[in-house]
Amino acid sequence: MPHPYLRLALFLTLLCPLGYWFYQAWTFALGPDPGRVLLWNLGQWSLGLLLATLCMSPLQQLTGWRWIAFRRQLGLWSFAYALLHLLAYLSFVLGFEWSQLAVEIQRRPYILVGFLAFLVLLPLAGSSNRRAMRLLGKKWKPLHRLVYLAVCLGLLHMLWIARSDIGNWAVYAVIFAILMVLRVGVVRAWLIKRRPARNSE
């Protein structure tokens, strides 16, 4: 298991962007529409962290080190950023005017796609603890394969928003495609064979 200090370092590292954005907002450094900047940043970090959780298995297979031990923490942070992304939309864009939500969804269907991605993440975050793993038993792994659906929905949500400017989206999409290739049986076996013998278990 990784040292507790490593977990603490990861926690503080993933907390830093929130503090930095709060400082930027406090000093009026986020431009004329800080709410939308925060909305975009939070969404990108949520998707990026979700991809980071998928990186843990290939890294462990390649190095033999227990990268997988950080997966839960990364996944929960991804959910936290997704939740803040949703709250930022409800606050800065919708103004908590619930009557306008149906109108917004009709005009901008990507909002529904993003909300579906959040709903997929909800049971994953809620079942990430050991007690849930024991209760779900063999059903836990199939449930957590929904992470792939969450990433696909997140990518569609981001692509729909970016439209003509898809540079950042393409980076996320390529990373996801590579991670999917690394999960193919032959490729996974190749990674394990290349793992240093001293780290093999």
- Large-scale geometry: globular
What is the number of independent domains? 1
User: So how many helices?
Assistant: 10
Percent of residues in helices: over 70%
Question: Which spans have pLDDT < 50 for at least 5 consecutive residues?
Answer: none
Question: Cα-atom Rg, whole angstroms?
Answer: 19 Å
Commentary on this structure:
It is found in: Cell membrane; Membrane. It comes from Pseudomonas matsuisoli. This is Protein-methionine-sulfoxide reductase heme-binding subunit MsrQ. Pfam families: Ferric_reduct. Residues 42-154 form the Ferric oxidoreductase domain. The protein is mainly alpha-helical. The protein has one domain (4-199). The chain has ten helices and no strands. It has helices at residues 4-26, 34-63, 71-93, 101-107, 110-126, 130-136, 140-144, 146-162, 167-181, 185-193. Helix 2 (34-63) packs antiparallel against helix 8 (146-162) and helix 8 runs antiparallel to helix 9. It is globular and about 55 Å long. The two termini are 14 Å apart. The mean pLDDT is 88.
Topology:
Elements: H1 4-26, H2 34-63, H3 71-93, H4 101-107, H5 110-126, H6 130-136, H7 140-144, H8 146-162, H9 167-181, H10 185-193
Helix pairs in contact: 2-3, 2-8, 2-9, 2-10, 3-5, 5-8, 8-9
Summarize the structure.
The chain is mostly helical and 201 residues long. The chain has helices at residues 4-26, 34-63, 71-93, 101-107, 110-126, 130-136, 140-144, 146-162, 167-181, 185-193. It is globular and about 55 Å long.
